[in-house]
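Table 4 source record.
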Amino acid sequence: MFSLKDRVALVTGGGNGIGRAIAIAYAGAGADVAVAGRNRETLEEVAREVEAAGRKSLTCVVDVRDVGQVRGMVRQTVERFGALDVLVNNAGLTNRAPSVDLSEEAWDAVLETNLKGLFFACQEAARHMIPRRWGKIINVSSIWGVVGRAERAAYSASKGGVNQLTRTLAVEWASHNIQVNALAPGATRTPTREEVFGKPEFYKRLVAQYPMGRLAEADDMVGAALFLASGASNFVTGQTIVVDGGHTIQ
């Protein structure tokens, strides 16, 4: 039911953290995987792990704020593998600032990465999925798109937009047998966040907000990501699945 045998997946932000974990898990489930991001070295490391699982890989160096690069990324994937079955929009950017101090440049950088780039990746993927009448799109959101968080105006707005965009595209493309869902992680330990999470007092206060008594690891997102990419979710669309150890139910 959760097999991805001979499917083709494209994972943005695939060089580290959640994207890396998902890409490697998809290969383990039988998919060929394209990984996209800005750091060629980390992408190539993930590609090697995909190939070690016996699957084909592709690396795409791309800045998702550039629509031309986003479209090229999807076209490269289709040219390499002949199809695109699963798109995971994981590339993201965050910042923290009091709303009265948030600059236009900071706002634009976050919205262009988290929402604009994501939409145009969905659009280009759908152009290939619609004729084949099969596709899975998974947009990585955040709990801060579900509940409020001080000093996260741009990030929260972008992720709330992701959740609503997910619903809209799910309705629009349901007749083409394309399921569009979102995955909303809670605080997750990844290499890019260790500078923050490595502060003992901050980490202790943060963990206290999670009923399960720990933060997520990137691998904690894999189960939901496999479900949403596989036939197990064929009648699930337009949903935002929160994976946060109980944080938002309090």
